[in-house]
Design goal:
It is a single chain. Helices cover 35% and strands 17% of the residues. β3, α3 and β4 form a beta-alpha-beta unit.
């Protein structure tokens, strides 16, 4: 992480402390070393910084490129070693992102993904995309589910006056395995459902969306 990102993150820590009442549980579940893929629900543009502040290890994001269009957040994410992923565009560009992510995990680092692929403005979990499952299998990395609650309240001109309660819950790391030699569409869907359920179990029932029950 570059010095500008360290300074910006320190400033954001103070701002989040002043503007939010946020808590973190489950830090003890995180191994001190080794490759990890953090998978979290995505509610607000504030979520990436919140994850960086809450997680006990340095996180690198593989995030949709739209997040990098916010001047301050985009600069912070790039200086922190994060890189955008395009949902459209040439196939080779997407393959390059996968190669970067796989290389990062091979070095024992921590990569964070929002497997829903977009924000849920209501705070209810959306259907997951297969990218996280595919990457976890390719890299042989453990997954760490994280649930974010409360950032859906960060809207309107005066939300900061209420100091909304925000909670970050870190779950127990786990691995996924495929019995098939080649990852078929049905197997990819099964594994994606498995990892999305791991996030859903950390959320209240009314926020679990298609992964409730």
């Amino acid at each position: 992480m570059k010095p500008p990102a360290r300074i910006a993150l320190a400033v954001m820590r103070v701002l989040y402390f002043l503007l939010l009442r946020w808590t973190v549980t489950g830090r003890e579940h995180v191994p001190g070393h080794g490759a990890l893929i953090v998978i979290a629900n995505h509610v607000h543009v504030a979520d990436p910084v919140l994850l960086m502040l809450a997680f006990p290890r340095h996180i690198t994001f593989l995030a949709k490129e739209e997040l990098f269009r916010y001047p301050f957040l985009g600069r912070l994410m790039r200086d922190g070693g994060m890189f955008p992923i395009a949902r459209t565009g040439p196939l080779e560009r997407k393959r390059d992102v996968v190669r970067q992510a796989t290389g990062l995990l091979a070095r024992g680092e921590v990569l964070a993904l929002f497997p829903e692929g977009r924000r849920s403005h209501s705070g209810v979990l959306l259907e997951g995309k297969p990218g996280a499952a595919v990457l976890a299998l390719r890299a042989g990395a453990k997954l760490v589910p994280v649930a974010i609650e409360g950032t859906e309240k960060l809207k309107g001109a005066l939300w900061w006056m209420k100091r909304p309660r925000v909670a970050v819950t870190i779950g127990v790391p786990f691995s996924i395995h495929s019995a098939e030699g080649r990852l078929s569409r049905s197997e990819s869907a099964r594994l994606t459902s498995e990892l999305m359920h791991s996030i859903a179990r950390l959320l209240p029932e009314e926020r679990r969306g298609p992964y409730g029950g």
